């Protein structure tokens, strides 16, 4: 991770914002996160704000990187994966290897999320079945019948012949 600031590429600021800076409090409020979280990302080397005395000064590049980090966390990427992906945004565009890596990570993450979705759907179906059974048992209890009675329904006795 380098601390250099680039003026081109996806982390470049939109026109009119190149000179804008933010305090840590402003960035935290804007991104609905905590100061502690931002400091953690700094300690991890994901953010490199300028220091003016004891004050942190965040430039547009830092702001974009924080947004990418937070998006990566929401999508379930590890900090290592996020670092690799975010660092790619600072590199010169057009590197096929970087894009291949990112596409591979997206594919892996998508597969994990699809599996989670299937697991959640199965768990919800199982919960529905248990809930139906519980509600049926509760109706029987409230009507004066025992839940076990439903399994042992009275049957007509047939005469036995010997």
UniProtKB/TrEMBL annotation:
InterPro entries: DNA-bd_dom_put_sf, MerR-type_HTH_dom, MerR_fam, Tscrpt_reg_MerR_DNA-bd
Coiled coil: 103-133
PROSITE patterns: HTH_MERR_2
Top-level division of the source organism's lineage: Bacteria
Keywords: Coiled coil, DNA-binding, Transcription, Transcription regulation
Location of the HTH merR-type domain: 21-88
Residue numbers spanned by region Disordered: 1-23, 141-162
GO terms for MF: DNA binding; DNA-binding transcription factor activity
Protein name in the entry: DNA-binding transcriptional MerR regulator
Species assigned in the record: Microlunatus kandeliicorticis
């Amino acid at each position: 991770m380098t601390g250099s600031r680039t003026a081109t590429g996806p982390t470049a600021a939109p026109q009119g914002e190149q000179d804008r800076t933010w305090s840590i409090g402003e960035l935290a409020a804007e991104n609905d996160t905590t100061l502690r979280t931002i400091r953690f990302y700094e300690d991890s080397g994901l953010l490199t704000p300028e220091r003016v005395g004891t004050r942190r000064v965040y430039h547009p590049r830092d702001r974009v990187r924080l947004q990418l980090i937070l998006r990566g966390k929401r999508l379930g990427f590890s900090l290592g994966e996020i670092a690799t992906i975010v660092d790619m945004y600072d590199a010169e565009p057009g590197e096929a290897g970087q894009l291949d890596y990112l596409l591979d990570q997206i594919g892996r993450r998508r597969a994990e999320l699809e599996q989670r979705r299937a697991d959640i759907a199965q768990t919800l179906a199982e919960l529905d079945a248990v809930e139906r059974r519980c509600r049926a048992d509760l109706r029987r209890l409230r009507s004066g019948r025992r839940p076990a009675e439903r399994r042992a329904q009275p049957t007509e006795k047939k005469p036995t012949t010997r």
